[in-house]
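Why do we bother with holo predictions? Because pocket geometry can differ from the apo form. Keep that in mind while you read this record for zinc ion.
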Amino acid sequence: MKKRYSLLLLLAGFFLLQSCQEQRAYRALIVTGQSNHNWQASAPILKTILDQTKLFSTDIAQTPKEKGDMSNFHPNFSRYSIVVMDYNGDAWPEATKTAFLEYVKNGGGVVIYHEADNSFPDWKEYNEIIGLGGWNKRNEKDGPYVYYKNNQLVVDTAKGSAGSHGPQHEYLVRARKADHPILKGLPVAWMHGKDELYSTLRGPAKNMEILATAYADTAKRGTGRDEPMLMTITCGKGRIFHTAMGHVGKDATHPATECVGFIVTFQRGAEWAACGKVTQAIPIDFPNVAGSVSRPEYREVTLSEDLDKIATYTIDKSTKYLTDLQARIRQVSGNPAALLDLEKQMVSILKEKGSTVEGKKLILKELAWMGSDYCIPAVQELLKNEELKEASTFTLERMKGPRKI
Ligand code: ZN
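The structure, written out:
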């Protein structure tokens, strides 16, 4: 009896899993298996990032090792809405190359990720798909350098090798096509987490739009130019999104892919490659010029995590969670019911005995601007607390004046 019951549970779980997968709008295939980078780490990271959108159900196709027998490597590209290239290695069999090109020409989406623009220097059509590439003996024969200088797009046919970067560092990414669906609604510039800044890329650059650039500072062995970081390319009916960012090496942490700017532009670029539009909301933790924002676990921080961190805040800790809360307040500022719901949760921190004095002060400061009559009894209660008397007096005084968020 018990056995039959567990079998039933197993079956129910299986069908539940099936139906969950079926709800995903798109199938994605990450192609990996050879690279001068740590593909064993990057491929699962990219899968996590894509699956997290709940738009994609992602598979990983792994080629044989370097110099291995590639003759059986024939992924069925046509089953997928996007193919993500996390690959820099041996040439594919002719039939696989042809199938990939057919897939793209017939409207398949492609995401070119970081070192995938180093791959296949001798495959002409692949270089048209990536738009710009680097290293592996690429030079003027492969196309011009393309970059921005003094806010002007430059197509530079000067002789020279392709592909370079200085030491990894944080850098500012600047939108060049802020109205493109991938960037629409994002800040026009944001700080990117520590990463390589790919420079001197060159290639056919046909049907290519540069969506965002980063200034390659000469102080960091850069070119002194604004180098392309995010690009779109069209090839036949196929849409290609190319991100030059996201280096993953042998280090234990991967700040380039943990960066919210990378994650979100990758997710949005993937959706655009799949269907030509972007439906994803802008997350509240998207960075701006003030500094990069990291998601060490590749997921957006929830409201309850923000509130827990604020409740236990002490001055030696980061105020990132307060910044998140402020963004959430701005997000619902036109919705009185949602704002009141947020206020109720903030007030519960004031009432909670385990909350720190510093955490309560942060909440009091926010309530001064956005609090309603609802919070007044809880704030008045804090007047009795010597450490919080000044902050709660300020809040009550401020609430008497004109309100604005
Ligand atoms: Zn790299």
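Residues 37, 114-115, 196, 247 surround zinc ion (CB under 6 Å).
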